[in-house]
Amino acid sequence: MKSYQIVDWGKPLQAVLAERPTPTGTEVLLKVDACGVCHSDVHIRDGYFDLGDGKRAVLADLGLKLPFTLGHEIAGTVVEAGPDAHVPSGRRFAVFPWIGCGACVRCLGGEEVNCETPRPIGTRRHGGFSEYVVVPHERYLVDYGDLDPNVAAVSACSGLTAYSALRKLTAASADDVLVIFGAGGVGLTAVNLARHLIASKIVVVDINDERLSAALEMGADAVINSVNDPNLDALKQISSRKPLNVVDFVGASATLKAATSIIGKGGCIVVVGLFGGTLPLSTALLPMRQMTLRGSYVGTIDEMRELIELLKTGRIAPIPMTTMPMSEVSGALDALKNGTAKGRLVATP
């Protein structure tokens, strides 16, 4: 089989030929039908995550060995199952990639995403930038019915990330305001979902007018270009109320600083983006303004199933997607890194 792997940190992915794996035990082998290209793949290819103040989480130091196959937003077709798996060949599934150790309290409680020793597909186990991928157990396979496999694939990360973040917000009314920082693929997904899940007015903040136009097309009530309005004064014209909820899909020092400056009393800020940075914050503001500041990282398998069922209803229009052959996946990572990608990127065989 052909895979596109990190061979050297920070360098273009390389096409590598290997024998097709044979599943053992509870493993299931899928032929990859679609695999989303995620911004976290860029960080992994570079070999580190920026923690701010010059600090980095270096993946080689955390045990990730090269060569390695990226790709965690996977939809595929079962071609073979191990002797302890009970799923027939030919069935199509999306893959829940956020796998833990399988034995701790978190894993046994269905919260593998919070496992302290995770083994996710595409970030610790070989992923979907390949012709085939091994899934360790059929419980990580989510039936997506008649959905487009491209939509099903990106539901495993960008869709799930947006859905889980929105579920963590404070209950709001139609007079409240939700501010979303970042109109990239995940931010646009959140706008799309928020129209059906959140009663509030939706305001999107970004530095790119083209992405802001896409946010309006997705259903945002208003947009703000923070280059032209760095203090976000336009919020005062949009509503007399301070925002009750903010979701930061960038995760930079500047966006977090802006979020804490605009949030209303009793409001909630959910940080999703992994851009990197630090936040100088007066700790007294948290109790005095009864502010909630929390992180959100992808989601649980139950949330992914809920999202897939919601998408099956047809009420959620798909966000813009760009597809490319798997052979061009390294260039797609470059587009994400350079900020030239539009919507979600999906690689297909």
TrEMBL record:
<dbReference type="InterPro" id="IPR002328">
    <property type="entry name" value="ADH_Zn_CS"/>
</dbReference>
<feature type="domain" description="Enoyl reductase (ER)">
    <location>
        <begin position="10"/>
        <end position="347"/>
    </location>
</feature>
<dbReference type="Pfam" id="PF08240">
    <property type="entry name" value="ADH_N"/>
</dbReference>
<dbReference type="InterPro" id="IPR013149">
    <property type="entry name" value="ADH-like_C"/>
</dbReference>
<keyword id="KW-1133">Transmembrane helix</keyword>
<dbReference type="InterPro" id="IPR013154">
    <property type="entry name" value="ADH-like_N"/>
</dbReference>
<keyword id="KW-0862">Zinc</keyword>
<dbReference type="InterPro" id="IPR011032">
    <property type="entry name" value="GroES-like_sf"/>
</dbReference>
<comment type="similarity">
    <text>Belongs to the zinc-containing alcohol dehydrogenase family.</text>
</comment>
<keyword id="KW-0472">Membrane</keyword>
<dbReference type="GO" id="GO:0008270">
    <property type="term" value="F:zinc ion binding"/>
</dbReference>
<keyword id="KW-0560">Oxidoreductase</keyword>
<dbReference type="GO" id="GO:0016616">
    <property type="term" value="F:oxidoreductase activity, acting on the CH-OH group of donors, NAD or NADP as acceptor"/>
</dbReference>
<keyword id="KW-0812">Transmembrane</keyword>
<dbReference type="InterPro" id="IPR020843">
    <property type="entry name" value="ER"/>
</dbReference>
<protein>
    <submittedName>
        <fullName>Alcohol dehydrogenase</fullName>
    </submittedName>
</protein>
<feature type="transmembrane region" description="Helical">
    <location>
        <begin position="262"/>
        <end position="286"/>
    </location>
</feature>
<keyword id="KW-0479">Metal-binding</keyword>
<dbReference type="Pfam" id="PF00107">
    <property type="entry name" value="ADH_zinc_N"/>
</dbReference>
<dbReference type="InterPro" id="IPR050129">
    <property type="entry name" value="Zn_alcohol_dh"/>
</dbReference>
<dbReference type="InterPro" id="IPR036291">
    <property type="entry name" value="NAD(P)-bd_dom_sf"/>
</dbReference>
